[in-house]
Design goal:
Chains: A mainly alpha (612), B alpha/beta (346), C mainly alpha (107)
Strand content of chain C: under 5%
Helix content of chain C: 40-55%
Largest sheet of chain A: 4 strands, parallel
Number of helices of chain C: 6
Radius of gyration of chain C: 15 Å
Number of strands of chain C: 0
Shape of chain C: globular
Number of domains of chain C: 1
Distance between the termini of chain A: 104 Å
Oligomer: heterotrimer
Structural class of chain C: mainly alpha
Strand order of the largest sheet of chain A: 2-1-3-4
Helix content of chain A: 55-70%
Largest interface: A-C, 37 and 28 residues
Shape of chain A: elongated
Number of domains of chain A: 4
Number of strands of chain A: 8
Radius of gyration of chain A: 30 Å
Order of helices and strands of chain C: HHHHHH
Distance between the termini of chain C: 29 Å
Chain lengths: 612, 346, 107
């Protein structure tokens, strides 16, 4: 019999072959679903530096897990130990067989079960390095495994409040995975105990446990068990969440080649399939979710994506979520859950038909030039204080303005898009565009982050668009609005659509820092919690929303601010209703901190104004 | 044997009536009031529904009885922040020191009015022409000026029901009970003051459950020509010269409605004022801060004693929105329960 | 068809007949958005409606139509909605109006 073969390697070989076959079939199906544009992108980017960059990223993210490390060092270390350790074992195994046989092309099982076939190896100093290297890599994986076990038992040890509750199929795959490395350790130790050889781990363990003659009968069963658990894990891999291991690598390549998500909800083909199957259910998104453990439906990204992967009913998950974007912001794999959810929503409401043909055409009359075109949006109508304050500030800065949606405001269309009906917001877009473009203004300022995001991303306006926090900071920088710092403490609430949605974190903070002390908030900027009423959510019950609001308020009020400040009418209204600390818009605060010597009327001026 | 002592927290209608009833039953009564004057909200009202009796008359008659009774000791400006069980009696804590001791305690801390400016869309605190129903009482009492020109003898006035009540968005699902009838009462008073005015009530449902309420509603329609519109306001916006334009849905017509007013009155509801945190041997009396709840008495419906703990009774509107007759009767009933407790029957 | 005794006669187009069977879709509508049942037709939604400036968009009426089984009438009128969400932000009964309208418009 060939010394490089023993029947116990068969479970591994068969499992591995099956996995390769299934993976190939699945990937081919998904790749065939790529749009023709995406295929072109692959062709044109294949032999470019992008591919190299992708390989670097694969090393950084799929093996060393740098992004997870940044979010949670302990968790990063766990993933790194498992993935990178295993990678080192594979690479080392290959080098080992190459070094000892002088032949690079060895059979796979020969490398995997090398120590069974060659218990004692010799060589110059290189032998010691090889043995040590392999044992070190094994130790690394086992460390990761111990941490993973610890995480199962007490997630708080790993700095996590919530971990994904896995489905039974995934638990089975997980069990096989956990058996692999201890079995490898014991099998190699048994061989070392019986035949000598081995390194600092296996030689010692072998001498201790498997030294005697009676232990001889243990050796082969352990190698069998190791092989079987490997084989079963490989068979389970393409059908479990461990599919993410190879898929994430492919996804990184595809992304670096510039591929874009295909239109519509198709989680079983094209780029979307790779995206959906790249999620490892690591659960980092759970702690980031402002709605975690609230309400009946666990709709967090991890569960939503799993539901999609398993073709189960995810309608309630898709319609409950707030779309605040915190999961997407923190996802170490960069799965675009936001888009996936929107695609699912359009899939759910595919038959919803809206028609806004009743909107009147707007005539562009000749108008005097005006400096500011002000758009306060639908939600702005419920926040007259913000609007009045902002107008008073414009007066203080000596700017002329037109409040363009004061009377016949029409929704910007973003809420329609958030419901997955982007294409049905066209008429609103056209109406608003005509209205704004016809004003002969220099800049469009909106006090609503929802409108702001949509105006900047989906509209083609003839003037620049600014959020009022940005505009107010500009006015302060130019010295058109002057304030002295006061003995006031603020906690700033980042609106989802302004912060994560539009990347605007600094201007409102800069304004507040001029007026008093800006307190740190436990979760802020891209980790900020949603107020609870993001328009992304459709079916989340009122009582759940109130719980989210209460949770967010607790975080905001923790350092006892004098005011909670937001710059979104929706957030402000939501928070103010439940807060015991006064909640104000940035514009209100700026107006109310006006020194008395500045002779500009405050809120009351609106009456004279309207009387003209 | 020395007389048994009862302490009452809050000298509003419930506290005053409890004090009188308990003193008449023979107890020593210590009556503590947080504010500098007794009377609670009753001291702020003008006339009372449905009989248009001046609020001052009722308060005076209660106060006379309180002041005349030798067993009642009234202390104002005392904020009782907690209670501690000491043997069979309760110690009253005022900022960490013991203020007094009693064999039984009546919590009669009443209610707070909903802050009208929380419904920002209605413009309270932004536009002077928008006032709360409590501010209108102050105007009737000549403690405040009308928000429109003195020369205007035919103002148009709108009254909005259910501000801060029956509103999930404010977290208050309950009906404040008294606002509908207050609106009817105030509408009549407005018509009496300005016979040439037009008064519009915007309601969700007219809840005229009390004795004589429906009759007053009828009278408001027939004799005072008050307009009742079933619909909610969307917002108030400035309309020049200090006037207010309101937009509403006229749900009976099924059409939007626009109206320009000289004054808009928001019928503010009742919210909890003190939320007791009950522990083993202590009760902390926490100030309501936008998330408190009315005091819940388990088993109140089946006529169980109105107490939170043995010897700690609760009377009046701190248990939930109530009208004056209800509060006064509740105070009398509490006094009876308390007597049964102290005499060992309960 | 047998003639039923009502004790009075009413033009069929004018009447709401709750004796007739309710459309099956209605149950799924209420199941997916149970908060719809809490509506008391106060009219707040219509008062604040952005689309209501221009069109006949009154959510509370849509809901009444649904409750009376007049689905056809309801679906047509739901199309005017812009989903801006102002109604939902001010609904005193906590109805998830945007979700409800989305489902109504695709019945």
């Amino acid at each position: 019999m060939d010394s490089k073969f023993h029947p116990f390697v068969l479970p591994f070989s068969i499992g591995f072959a099956l996995m390769l076959a299934v993976l190939t079939v699945r990937y081919v199906i998904w790749l065939r679903g790529l749009s023709s544009d995406n295929r072109k992108r692959i062709r044109s980017n294949f032999f470019t530096v992008n591919t190299w960059e992708a390989l670097v990223e694969i090393f950084r993210e799929s093996l060393v897990h740098l992004k997870i490390y940044k979010v949670n060092p302990m968790l990063g270390f766990m993933h790194m130990s498992l993935a990178f350790g295993w990678f080192l074992l594979i690479v080392g195994g290959k080098l080992e067989t190459w070094y000892y046989t002088g032949d690079f092309a060895n059979e796979m099982h020969y490398a995997i079960f090398f120590r069974y076939f060659e218990p004692v190896t010799s060589g110059f100093w290189m032998n010691g390095v090889m043995v040590f290297f392999m044992e070190f890599a094994l130790l690394m994986v086992l460390t990761g495994l111990i941490l993973a076990l610890a995480k199962r038992i007490r997630k708080k040890l790993m700095g996590m409040q919530n971990t994904t509750r896995h489905s039974s199929g995934n638990r089975i795959a997980l069990t096989f995975l956990w058996f692999i490395f201890p079995l490898r350790l014991f099998a190699e130790s048994a061989t070392a105990g019986q035949h000598g050889g081995g390194g600092f781990l296996t030689a010692n363990l072998g001498a201790w446990l498997f030294g005697g003659d009676s232990a001889a009968s243990w050796e082969l069963p352990l190698w069998w068990a190791y092989s079987i658990s490997l084989g079963l894990f490989f068979i389970a891999l393409p059908f479990s969440r461990y599919l993410h291991i190879p898929t994430e690598m492919v996804l990184i390549l595809l992304r670096r080649w510039g591929l874009e998500s295909e239109k519509g909800f198709n989680p079983n083909k094209g780029l979307q399939a790779f995206e959906v199957h790249s999620c490892s259910s690591c659960g980092i998104c759970l702690d980031a979710c402002p709605a975690i453990n609230i309400g009946q439906e666990a709709f967090q990204a991890s569960y939503f994506v799993r539901g999609v992967r398993e073709n189960s009913e995810v309608e309630a998950k898709a319609t409950s979520c707030l779309s605040c974007g915190s999961c997407t912001a923190i996802c170490p794999v960069g799965v675009d859950v936001e888009q996936l959810r929107l695609d699912k929503r359009s899939d759910i409401f595919t038959k919803a038909r809206f028609s806004h043909s009743y909107l009147p055409g707007s005539m562009t009359l000749w108008r005097d030039t005006t400096e500011v075109v002000l758009f306060t949006g639908c939600m702005g109508r419920s926040n007259p204080k913000t609007t009045v304050a902002f107008k008073a500030l414009l007066k203080e800065a000596g700017l002329s303005f037109v409040h363009v949606d004061e009377k016949d405001g029409v929704c910007c269309g973003r809420p329609m898009a958030l419901a997955g009906a982007l294409d049905q917001s066209l008429m609103m877009k056209e109406y608003n565009s005509n209205l704004i473009n016809g004003q002969n203004g220099q800049v469009l300022v909106t006090s609503c982050p929802i409108c702001f995001k949509y105006f900047t991303e989906e509209y083609n306006l003839n003037i620049p668009v600014m959020h009022h926090s940005q505009f107010l900071w500009e006015l302060m920088k130019k010295g058109k609005i002057k304030r002295d710092s006061r003995d006031l403490k603020f906690a700033y609430h980042d609106p989802c659509e302004l912060g994560r949605g539009s990347g605007c974190y600094e201007p409102p903070r800069s304004v507040l820092a001029q007026l008093g002390e800006l307190l740190p908030v436990d979760k802020e900027r891209d980790k900020a919690l949603c107020c609870g009423n993001n328009l992304g959510s459709l079916s989340l019950p009122e009582s759940d929303r109130r719980q989210i609001t209460a949770r967010t308020l607790a975080v905001l009020s923790a350092n006892e601010p004098d005011y909670i400040v937001s710059s979104c009418p929706l957030c402000k209204q939501t928070l103010a209703r439940q807060s015991s600390v006064e909640v104000k818009d940035l514009a209100e605060i700026l107006l109310e901190t006006k020194p008395l010597r500045v002779k500009v009327p405050s809120y009351s001026y609106v009456h004279q104004e309207a009387g003209r | 044997m020395t007389k048994q002592k009862v302490a009452i927290i809050g000298a509003g209608p419930a506290g005053l009536q409890s004090a009188v009833s308990l003193a008449e039953l023979g107890y020593e009564v210590d009556l503590y009031e947080k504010k500098s004057r007794p009377g609670g909200h009753l001291a702020e009202w003008h006339v009372l529904f449905p009989d248009m009796q001046p609020a001052g008359e009722l308060l005076d008659s209660l106060m006379q009885k309180v002041l005349a009774h030798p067993q009642i000791r009234l202390e104002t400006g005392v904020n009782i922040s907690g209670l501690e069980r000491a043997g069979n009696s309760w110690q009253l804590i005022q900022s960490d020191s013991v203020r007094g001791e009693a064999d039984a305690v009546v919590l009669a801390s009443g209610f707070k009015l909903f802050e009208a400016s929380k419904k920002e869309e209605y413009g309270h605190g932004i536009y002077p022409a928008v006032i709360s129903s409590a501010e209108l009482e102050a105007i009737f009492n000549r403690e405040k000026e009308w928000p429109f020109e003195k020369t205007n003898k035919s103002p148009k006035i709108g009254l909005v029901h259910c501000v801060g009540s029956r509103d999930a968005k404010c977290g208050n699902l309950y009906c404040s009970k008294a606002c509908c009838i207050t609106a009817v009462k105030q509408a009549i008073e407005l018509k009496k003051t300005f016979p040439a005015s037009e008064v519009y009530c915007f309601y969700m449902d007219m809840r005229m459950f009390g004795l004589g309420y429906e009759e007053l509603y009828h009278k408001a329609q027939l004799d005072y020509k008050v307009h009742f519109i079933r619909g909610r306001l969307s917002e108030a916006s400035p309309s020049g010269a200090g006037r207010i334009q309101v937009k509403a849905e006229d749900t009976l017509m099924g059409r939007p409605l626009k109206l320009t007013l000289d004054m808009l009155v928001l019928m503010v509801g009742m919210t909890a004022s003190v939320s007791p945190e009950v522990k083993e041997n202590t009760v902390e009396l926490k100030e309501y801060a936008n998330k408190g709840e009315f005091v819940k008495i388990p088993g109140a419906v089946i006529g169980a004693a109105q107490w939170l703990k043995p010897g700690l009774f609760v009377a009046g509107a701190c248990k939930g929105p109530a009208t004056l007759p209800e509060v006064l009767n509740d105070a009398r009933a509490t006094a009876l329960d308390l007597r049964n407790y102290l005499s060992g029957v309960l | 068809m047998t003639k039923q005794y009502f004790g009075f006669s009413v033009l069929e187009q004018r009447s709401v007949n709750l004796d007739s069977e309710m459309p099956a879709e209605l149950e799924s509508l209420y199941q997916k958005e149970p908060s719809l049942r809490a509506c008391i037709a106060c009219g707040n939604c219509a008062a604040v409606c952005s689309a209501g400036h221009f069109a006949e968009m009154q959510f509370y009426r849509l809901n009444v139509m649904a409750r009376r089984g007049l689905l056809h009438e309801m679906v047509g009128k739901a199309a005017a909605c812009m989903l801006c969400g102002r109604c939902q932000m001010s609904c005193p009964r906590g109805v998830n109006i945007r979700h409800a309208v989305l489902m109504m418009s695709q019945l």
